[in-house]
C-alpha cells in the first residue's frame, strides 16, 4: 500500500508538482515538504521510496530523495529529475552523475574554519583531524596553501593511533576543527576526543550541530527553514529554467554554541545571529 501525505497550497497550472521519496515517515521530513510546498505555491507529496515501480512517479516534475536510505533505494529507472537532500557529500558522490542536483547535509570545512577564526582569532593556528589525504582532498581544501592559512591537517593513518595524532595536533594549535566523518567522529571516539582536547584547554569546532550537546564549542548548521529555502530555489531553477544547480553545500545556515563550554574556556562568544550573517556575507564575496 502506498504511503501518501499531501501538502496543498494555492496552485496555478505553471507551478511544479514535487514528490518527496522517503524511507520512513518522520516529522522533520513532513515539515520540509510542507515548507517547500508553501514556497513553490503548489502541492508536494510524500511517498515511500520502495514504491519506485509505481507509474505515478512520472507525473511529477521532480522527486526529492530524502536521506541516504532513500538515495540508496532509488533505482533511477524514472526519467523524473531527482534531487537529494539530507545526504552527506560522500553519500551523494557515487550517484552525482545520475542526480539532477543535491544539497549536502554537512557544512563545508572552509565555513567551519572561518567560524573558528572569528572565535579564536584570525592569527591562531588551527588543526584539522582527518583519516588520510583522500579525506582531506574530499573536504575541498587540498588546494589551500597551508602555512599562510594557518590551517594544518593531521592524518590519523600517519600515526600509530588516533590519540597520538590528536595530541600532536593539540600541542601546536588553538582549536581542533572537526570534519563530517561519522567513522572518525563516531560515538566511540567522540568522548575520547573531547576529553583529550579540553584537558589541553582546546575546543572542538563542529563537525555538526549534533556534537554541540556532547561538548563541541560551536558549529554552523542548516535547519529545516534553511534547507527548504535552498531546496525551493534548486527546484524552481531546475524545473522552470531546465538548468539544475550543481550539487553543493547549503548557503543558508546558522551558528550554534555550547555556552557552558565557552565559559569553561573563558571565551567571549560573538552573537550567533550576527556572526552567521557575517560569515554568509564573506562567503558571498568569493
Automatic annotation (TrEMBL):
This is ABC transporter substrate-binding protein. InterPro entries: ABC_transpt-TYRBP-like. It comes from Thalassolituus hydrocarboniclasticus. It comes from the Bacteria.
